[in-house]
């Protein structure tokens, strides 16, 4: 191993520790790490900015940007607030039914948008409904964020790790739907039942409080019906574009950017409104991460690790998938699943390539996606959506401690992962 | 006009004052903000009225404005009633509310100095204190605006005269 490779590993490990411990903002850690990689010569301008394998994956960045703009317009319509209150009223304001409705709305929205934005939109209206019900909102917020991490696993755009995996593995939107969709539906069904027991103390019904929910005027949340219909029309087109992108030979990032552009054009909103939800820090964080991981590819570290992994796995891809699934769960619980997947993707790509493109080898991607997405539920820092919900809860006077989250998260993660393991075995290795 | 001439007695509240009482003080005296005093009655902070409203509007509504539309009258009344359970101290404890260090002027300060402090501190109220720190009243936003308007009115006849004596005409010709 060269001195440069050793230096690159040191830079990468230092940045990773800073990201995991949050000693400094994660954007600063990722950008600092990328800068050091450039300083030590582990990467250069061509490799960092113009090579997909060793630098910034612009497909991922622009897919995220496009979806953030689409959500920025959609949230102006009040459709999420309408849906959540409408659902609570359909549930006759009975607490468990309300939770089930909110969990399902969150899961579906997370699959169609992304889970961070979904919880950002659903959490405030949940606080309102819980305030009207006179109940503690913490169980409802926990139930939602976990369903968001489960629901987001179903699609290419649902969870940032999936976007990275899709780009690195050249997997389509439909690949995700077909391979991840069935298990996510099963997991959601089980999760809904679990909520009945996990949060059983929260389901006390008071007729007078229920009346306060029934008095809410959900239609008033939609202040611009014309914008709503235009936005929904574009969203349907975008989702259709995702489904057809491989047939049309168009990258998902192009679909998202075209959708965002069309929506901006038809909405008539000012840039301040439609750009308000763009998380520039997240996009820059991704760029820094890609340069760091790309540098490891560039200096041959990932290649050597890949060879070692290939030798260790041999032909036993089920063992590799098992290790990847459970290992990803543990590591995603410790660090945010985005940097974890960004690091693992080149390694898994090597393993899949060594399998000669077999189904068993290819299924390693699904093991990685399931492990990282579901592992995000294990702890409060496992996924970005968790951090967002904890922040909203604390700001509104309902702090959720790390251990409160972890207590529920561990149970949900254990059950969902233990159900995913036989799914992988039955579907790809039996 | 100097600050000492514009100062008036403005009622103060303390951290223990309930949000409902604070609202009543603002409404009764038509204030655009609150002066918060310590237990000795010495002003320590000014809270603009729009910041006081944050005690009424739940934070999740402030973060998602479309939720404001879903309340009916009864729901709004419940939020009003909840003000009894909150105190002014909540404003100081909130991370999102900017409590200005006491905006103050000296008794001899001019209208321009008063307006500059209001603009700089984003404060609709400024306290008048002498160099020894003694509090002699406060200048409200409406009082300052009234002084500005009357200053402009006093200037207008002079401007008209200036035009007739040729000075304005000369300026116009230059332009």
How would you characterize the overall build of this protein?
The complex is a heterodimer of chains A (430) and B (175). By secondary structure, chain A is an all-alpha fold. Chain A has 21 helices and no strands. In chain A, helix 7 (115-133) runs antiparallel to helix 8 (138-152). Chain A is globular, with a radius of gyration of 22 Å. With 175 residues, chain B is α/β, with parallel strands linked by helices. Chain B has a single domain (3-167), classed as Roll (CBS-domain), CATH 3.10.580. Helix content of chain B is 46%, strand content 16%. Chain B has nine helices and seven strands; from the N terminus they run αβαββααααββαββαα. In chain B, the strands form two sheets. Chain B has a four-stranded mixed β-sheet. Chain B has a three-stranded mixed β-sheet with strand order 5-6-7. In chain B, strand 5 (104-105), helix 7 (111-121) and strand 6 (125-129) form a beta-alpha-beta unit. In chain B, helix 7 crosses helix 8. Chain B is globular, with a radius of gyration of 21 Å. Residues 160-175 of chain B have low confidence and may be disordered. The chains are: A mainly alpha (430), B alpha/beta (175). Chain A binds chain B through residues 78, 81, 85, 121, 123-125, 127-128, 131-132, 212, 215-218, 220-223, 392, 395-397, and chain B through 58-61, 63-64, 66-67, 69-72, 74-75, 78, 95-96.
Poorly predicted runs of chain B = 160-175
Mean pLDDT of chain A: 91
Helix content of chain B: 40-55%
Q: Strand-and-helix sequence of chain B, N→C?
A: HEHEEHHHHEEHEEHH
Unreliable stretches of chain A, pLDDT < 50, 5 or more residues?
A: none
Gross morphology of chain B is globular
Top CATH class of chain B: Alpha Beta
Please give the count of helices of chain B.
Answer: 9
């Amino acid at each position: 191993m060269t001195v440069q490779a050793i230096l690159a590993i040191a830079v990468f490990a230092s940045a990773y520790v800073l990201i995991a411990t949050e000693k400094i903002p994660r954007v600063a850690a990722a950008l600092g790490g990328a800068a050091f990689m450039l300083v030590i010569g582990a990467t250069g301008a061509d490799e960092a900015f113009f090579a997909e394998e060793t630098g910034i994956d612009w497909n991922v960045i622009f897919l995220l940007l496009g979806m953030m703009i689409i959500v920025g317009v959609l949230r102006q319509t009040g459709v999420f607030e309408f849906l959540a209150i409408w659902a609570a009223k359909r549930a006759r304001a009975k607490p468990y039914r309300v939770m089930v409705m909110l969990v399902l709305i969150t899961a579906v929205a997370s699959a169609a948008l992304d889970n961070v934005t979904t919880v950002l939109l659903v959490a405030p209206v949940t606080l309102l409904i819980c305030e009207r019900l006179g109940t503690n909102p913490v169980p409802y917020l926990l139930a939602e964020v976990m369903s968001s991490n489960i629901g987001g696993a179903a699609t290419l755009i649902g969870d940032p790790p999936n976007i990275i995996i899709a780009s690195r593995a050249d997997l389509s939107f439909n690949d995700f739907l077909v391979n991840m969709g069935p298990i996510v539906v099963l997991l959601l069904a089980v999760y809904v039942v679990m909520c009945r027991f996990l949060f059983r103390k929260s389901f006390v019904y008071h007729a007078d409080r229920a009346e306060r929910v029934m008095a809410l005027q959900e239609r008033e949340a939609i202040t611009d019906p014309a914008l709503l219909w235009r936005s929904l029309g574009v969203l349907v087109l975008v989702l259709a574009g995702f489904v057809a992108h491989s047939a049309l030979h168009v990258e998902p990032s192009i679909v998202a950017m075209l959708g965002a552009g069309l929506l901006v054009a038809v909405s008539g909103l000012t840039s301040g409104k439609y750009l308000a939800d763009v998380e520039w820090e997240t996009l820059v964080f991704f760029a820094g991460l890609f340069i760091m991981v790309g540098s490891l590819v560039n200096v041959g570290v990932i290649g050597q690790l890949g060879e070692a992994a290939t030798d260790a796995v041999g032909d036993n891809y089920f063992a590799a998938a098992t290790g990847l699934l459970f290992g990803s769960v543990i590591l995603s619980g410790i660090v945010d699943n985005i940097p974890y997947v960004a690091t693992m993707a080149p390694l898994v790509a090597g393993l899949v390539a060594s399998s000669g493109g077999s189904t068993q080898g290819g299924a390693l991607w699904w093991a990685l996606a399931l492990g990282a997405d579901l592992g995000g539920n294990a702890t409060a820092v496992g996924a970005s959506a968790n951090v967002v919900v904890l922040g909203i809860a604390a700001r509104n006077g309902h702090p959720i401690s790390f251990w409160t989250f972890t207590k529920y998260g561990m149970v949900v993660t254990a059950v969902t992962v233990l159900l995913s393991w036989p799914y992988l075995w039955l579907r790809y290795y039996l | 006009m100097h600050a000492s001439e514009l100062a008036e007695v403005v009622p103060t509240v303390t951290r223990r004052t309930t949000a409902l009482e604070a609202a009543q003080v603002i409404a009764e005296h038509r204030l655009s903000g609150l002066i918060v005093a310590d237990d000795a009655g010495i002003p320590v902070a000014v809270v603009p009225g729009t910041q006081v409203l944050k005690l009424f509007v739940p934070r999740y509504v402030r973060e998602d404005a479309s939720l404001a539309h879903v309340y009916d009258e009864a729901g709004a009344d419940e939020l009003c009633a909840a003000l009894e359970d909150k105190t002014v101290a909540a404003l100081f404890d909130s991370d999102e509310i900017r409590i200005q260090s006491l905006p103050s002027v000296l008794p001899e300060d001019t209208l321009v100095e008063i307006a500059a402090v209001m603009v700089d501190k984003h404060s609709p109220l400024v306290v008048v204190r002498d160099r020894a720190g003694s509090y002699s009243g406060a200048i409200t936003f409406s009082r300052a605006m009234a002084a500005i308007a009357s200053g402009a009115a006093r200037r207008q006849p002079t401007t008209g005269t200036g035009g007739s004596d040729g000075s304005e005409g000369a300026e116009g010709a230059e332009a």
